[in-house]
Amino acid sequence: MKHATTRLIGLEHPLAMITAIVLITIGYSKSKRATDGQAKFRHIAIFYSIALALVFLRIPWSYWMSL
After folding, report:
1. pLDDT per residue as tens digits for the range 31-63
2. Which of 11, 18, 31, 45 could bridge to 40 as Cys pair (CB 3.0-4.6 Å)?
3. Is 11 a domain residue?
4. Do residues 1 and 7 lie in contact, with contact meaning Cβ atoms separated by under 8 Å?
């Protein structure tokens, strides 16, 4: 775990992607249970935005640019 690239690809990236999937699932479930249309959209927007930001932050951009 001393090498940043190895840690990113081996640990941080998969963990962040699993977390993003969990956030999307939670947002979808909360939106299904909401009765108000505005509340449904708010739940989806919040959870999906956080998940998308997490995905973009943990993509190994430097690894792909060096290929």
Report:
1. 999 999 999 999 999 999 999 999 999 887 776
2. 31
3. no
4. yes
| Rounded Cα distance, 47 and 26, in Å | 7
Domain assignment present for residue 8? The answer is: no
Per the structure, how many domains does the chain have? 1
Q: Average pLDDT in the 11-28 region?
A: 95
User: What is the CA angle 17-39-18, rounded to 5?
Assistant: 10
Could you tell me the residue range of the domain that residue 27 belongs to? 17-61
User: Percentage helix, strand, coil, to 5, in the chain?
Assistant: 85, 0, 15
Is residue 35, in this structure, part of any structural domain at all?
Answer: yes
